[in-house]
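User: Hey, my collaborator sent me this sequence without any context and asked if I could get a structure. I don't really work with proteins. Can you help?
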Amino acid sequence: METGKVVDGYKFADEATSDVRVCFTRIDEQPEWFPCHSSVLSSGSKYFAEWLGRNDIRSNNCIEVECPRVDYDHHVKVLKLMYLPCESIVESFDSVKSALGVLRASTSLKSELITRSCIDYLESSSWDEKEEEEILEVAQNLGSEALPLLARLQAPSANAVKNVFISAIRFATSMESSFAPFSDDLKTSAQEQIEFMLHEGDDPAMVMMDEDIRSVLKEGLAKLLSTLRTGLDLLASGFDQWPEQAEKRVLHSLVDIDWITNVLTKIEMMNEFVSGWLEISDHVISVVQDKKFSSGLWAVKVKLIEVTGKALDAVGYGSVILPSTSRAHLLKTWLPYIRTTKCWLDGKMKHEAFPQMDVDLSQNIESAMVSMILALPSGDQSDILSEWMLKADQFRYPDLTEAFEMWCYRSKTAIRRLKPRIDNGDKPISLFRVPGLSVQLPVQSGKTRVISAQEGS
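Assistant: No problem. I've predicted the 3D structure and written it out in structure-token form, which is a compact way to encode the shape of the chain:
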């Protein structure tokens, strides 16, 4: 459509040369008539071309068009755009809102050139969420012409989502080294969007887990744990020269690890984290409890408790299954550290400079420890509870009274269950051997004697 040649020499609303008038009717308002040219209207709009083909403008040179009041100005603009050269139409738009209004009007008036110009402008512009909904609504009535708009609105392929997700994981876990000034911001954004893509709230999760994604997550977790270990190894030397930078490096690693536990929880891969955390736990504690850091590193020490709380929670409530030896080691390693750190922090509650453990976090860790203790073999339970009671007057946290009471009940129940077997002459079985416990049992002669744990062993 060579509108530029047709409009050459004509101006919009030029009464001297016009041969037809157009009015867009508005209810209860004085009509406004626009002098136009039938040749321009016919070439620029199928609606006007059809009207002019059915009517003789010599007998009635007025065209009335009904339009919604909200779109009145947009219909008028369509008339004006018909008088512009093709290349100038797109340049006339100054906002997505304006282009959307003109698009609705041009669709109504069947102006293909202006409709395509609106689509070209919108396709190259950025939209907000509200505008996107309006564009989608309009695009549904445009047929194949709307394909450039729908290309941005349609859901990406599963493979495309997977590629973006894997790239985000690699950046979020620092697997891709970058020294750009915005790298920290991009890493934070990548972490936030990974959680968003996995979220299953009102919208479905974007990502379907497969072995490729799980493999990259394992690699990312290994990278974060390795970075933490390296930071801890460099802590002693760096702390003397740049204490704040050294602590910040380790803290950043812990924040990243804390983040990835949220991701691993959603996709049921916490066993990978717990296993990795268990491997480095002894080394972590040996570093942060060095005398050099006895009065410092409190942000790191608190963050360690938060991260460890994720492991204790996963093991304590059964989402991660470990052998009893591993569960006992995890608990015996971290319980003394957590209770002494919590005690020290409680003594500094009035000092705003010192971080504090969240109340909910404290309760969750305490509950997880109780669950873990009750799931251990009786001997491990007694070791932990004995150590806990020896220092109960010094440390109020954690309160393992529930575990202690249950241990006593179970121990007595176990003795009662064994009594019939011993009455029948059976040798006491290992279930009865509870370190530190002395009980009275009947013997074959009918007399009663005391059997201690040491004698039973």
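In plain terms: Residues 243-266 form the longest helix (24 residues). You can pass these tokens on to your collaborator as they are.
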